[in-house]
Amino acid sequence: MVSKPPAGDPVQDAPQVTPPQHAAAGLPAIGHTLRIAQQQMGVSRTARTLLKVNQKDGFDCPGCAWPEEDKRHVAEFCENGAKAVAEEATLRRVTPDFFAAHPLSDLATRSGYWLGQQGRITQPMYLPEGADRYEAISWERAFAILGEELRALASPDEALFYTSGRTSNEAAFLLQLFAREFGTNNLPDCSNMCHESSGSALTETIGIGKGSVSLEDLHRADLIVVAGQNPGTNHPRMLSALEKAKAAGAKIISVNPLPEAGLERFKNPQTPQGMLKGAALTDLFLQIRIGGDQALFRLLNKLVLETDGAVDEAFVREHTHGYAEFAAAARAADWDETLAATGLTRAQIERALEMVLASERTIVCWAMGLTQHKHSVPTIREVVNFLLLRGNIGRPGAGVCPVRGHSNVQGDRTMGIFERPAPAFLDALDKEFGIVSPRHHGFDVVRSIQALRDGEAKVFFAMGGNFVGATPDTEVTEAAMRRARLTVHVSTKLNRSHAVTGARALILPTLGRTDKDVQQSGRQFVTVEDSMGLVHASRGNLPPASPHLLSEPAIVARMARATLGDGSATPWEAFERDYATIRDRIARVVPGFDDFNARLAADPGGFALPHAPRDERRFPTATGKANFTAAPVEYPRVPEGRLLLQTLRSHDQYNTTIYGLDDRYRGIKGGRRIVLVNPEDAAALGLADGAYTDLVGEWTDGTERRAPGFRVVHYPTARGCAAAYYPETNVLVPLESTADISNTPASKSVIVRLEQSQPA
Ligand SMILES: Nc1nc2c(c(=O)[nH]1)N[C@H]1C(S)=C(S)[C@@H](COP(=O)(O)OP(=O)(O)OC[C@H]3O[C@@H](n4cnc5c(=O)[nH]c(N)nc54)[C@H](O)[C@@H]3O)O[C@H]1N2
Ligand SMILES: Nc1nc2c(c(=O)[nH]1)N[C@H]1C(S)=C(S)[C@@H](COP(=O)(O)OP(=O)(O)OC[C@H]3O[C@@H](n4cnc5c(=O)[nH]c(N)nc54)[C@H](O)[C@@H]3O)O[C@H]1N2
Ligand SMILES: [Mo]
């Protein structure tokens, strides 16, 4: 299989390379932000919009899920948040004329960057069977087609309802309610590709699949371990929290195959000193081999166990289960094997141990560097073991901190977007609405693609996101999507998923976070939950991108009426008229949302959801205690002459949305088809800096996948490891290459061969 870059695209991919930077944010970031924002929005709209980001009376930043501090700055956003806002609040428009000028066969040749740059979609569009052009369609007709196709299915399980994590709580709650009333748990979501491994690991070990720390805890920690995360690009506001923690005396260990600029040094744009000098953040950089984290934490656990007085014995006795078995496994950890798995030195690990032992309050933060491997779930469980050993869960300044991606991905799960819902959740939903939800599990993202491929699923509906662009094994996925009867995308902007369709397709344009949402009962707001379990309101203030847009809750309500008709006793019309009525129902179904509307009215800044381990040191697991686990240590074995490739984000992208072609901190300009290779590995493979190479993925079943024409960049990544951007490299990730237990695509461990070639 070969994936070539698009041919019909005027955008040139010609990467230039300069040395990587050692500091993130500061003045260059501000200039870059304003430039991008003004190109999309003009000067006055830029000012009006950016001043409302993350304010209590404003909208939640559509960037990442990092929480806001209670005392907000006037400009409470970061460079990349501003880019996310500009991308949505752009003045560029995709009208029916655009679709008349660009048939599907043309759209299919365009890059994601080009598609996104065309602007906001203004009207519902329909692609009839056999046609090559989308045509404008009325909302009535669009819902009639959708209802007709859904009702025609042999079973509700032939429908798939995907959610990307920007969807509000209100829209997500309605979507899962509709899916279950219709009769399926097929609710795949972006989380299946993201933090599912964290959820799987945490639910079993501490009883809740969410992080246990607040911003306040980060500020009070003695030691913060940041593993597998690049906050300088993906969670820039986290750097302010790390800076504050450092100022109060915290130490930081970063565990990463790449030296990431933001973690090295941070120039805080919110303070004058910060702008000039910046703070060094990382005290110890553990440049680990890809996939070596479980081995590292296992050895640290052994060393803690062997140190007198280092284990919090009272905590272990009172609050945990499985200690003996875990301790036996940890004691068997082997130095030589750990050094081989991690590529670290003995001295580095001993230094890390000293810092661990010197800390009374430890937090571990992580993101995709830990979640997207075959052995991600046992890796994260080993992190939990590490924290449990010294009682670092459920007290101030300590805990687990999976740093979530999309701004409401955590909230969507809380609202019931899950293919494997807990029976108690379904019981509450059924009781409230007088329905009978299916109890059998639905399809996650990877199973959904397999179901489309195998003809088991026929209608695909996406509440946001870019399913085709974000999922693995691009060729397989695109072929699968083309087998669908109907594909439907609720979207703000064009992307690859609109160009790779089923027999019929609908594009349903919707309001974004920045747009003012007025319904029959008046102006509405929605709510979101951040990475630390804080729920708050989000209110757009711009006139909508077009008068023809419907909000996400309105779209779900109308889809439900078109599909379920008089058979539904659910007040869909009332929900659309007044979102407070949706929140009243959420309050009665979802634990922690009691008096939802009243609490939001009392404090628009929001409230924290309950979290038993954090609040009461109570662990709602099967054993009633926090569980130690003892999985065998695994790490990727890479054959001679091959490299282990991770697929990651550049500084100028938001997942599949490409803002620009630069990756400033890594010194890449004007192109994305690059592969970062350690200079010694490159020398051994005979690859000069600037040479062009094909990336050839080798999968265990003997199949190969090829991504041609990547420029080799000699870069200080760990030995044996390589890195290239997603989504260009998704073609290399086999659909079957997933994490055990969580079924998350193993996007960070792809075995590749590099073959000399030409620019693509
Ligand atoms: N600007 C911007 N912000 C974003 C996003 C975006 O695309 N752009 N995406 C959002 C989303 S949905 C998410 S999930 C988050 C993603 O946030 P991140 O997880 O920071 O994103 P990635 O670019 O995938 O970076 C993975 C990091 O893990 C490291 N890594 C890779 N493999 C390993 C390993 O085996 N071990 C260790 N220890 N480290 C490893 C990589 O070198 C890299 O630093 O960001 C969110 N925020
Ligand atoms: N190889 C590889 N693959 C990966 C990853 C990786 O690291 N490597 N990361 C994975 C991760 S962590 C994630 S979260 C997924 C992301 O997967 P998705 O969430 O599906 O992808 P996005 O690129 O975030 O979706 C962008 C699209 O969302 C739409 N959109 C934006 N705002 C709104 C809105 O307010 N409402 C609606 N309805 N639509 C909107 C726009 O049309 C835009 O084109 O990708 C995963 N895929
Ligand atoms: Mo994500």
From TrEMBL:
Q: Where is the Molybdopterin dinucleotide-binding domain?
A: 643-750
**Which Pfam families does this entry report, sorted A to Z?**
Molybdopterin (PF00384), Molydop_binding (PF01568)
Q: Which domain of life is it from?
A: Bacteria
Q: Which InterPro entries match?
A: Asp_de-COase-like_dom_sf, MopB_CT_YdeP, MoPterin_dinucl-bd_dom, Mopterin_OxRdtase, Mopterin_OxRdtse_a_bac, Prok_molybdopt-oxidoreductase, YdeP_MopB
**Sorted alphabetically, which CDD domains does this protein's record hold?**
MopB_CT_ydeP, MopB_ydeP
Identify the cofactor(s): Mo-bis(molybdopterin guanine dinucleotide); [4Fe-4S] cluster
Q: What sequence ranges are listed for the domain Molybdopterin oxidoreductase? A: 120-488
Give the residue ranges for region: Disordered: 1-24
**Record's keyword terms, sorted:** 4Fe-4S, Iron, Iron-sulfur, Metal-binding, Molybdenum, Oxidoreductase
**Stretches of the chain forming a coiled coil according to its record:** none
Family (UniProt): Belongs to the prokaryotic molybdopterin-containing oxidoreductase family.
Under the heading PANTHER family, the entry gives: PROTEIN YDEP, RESPIRATORY NITRATE REDUCTASE
Name the UniProt record assigns to this protein = FdhF/YdeP family oxidoreductase
Please name the source species: Streptomyces solicathayae
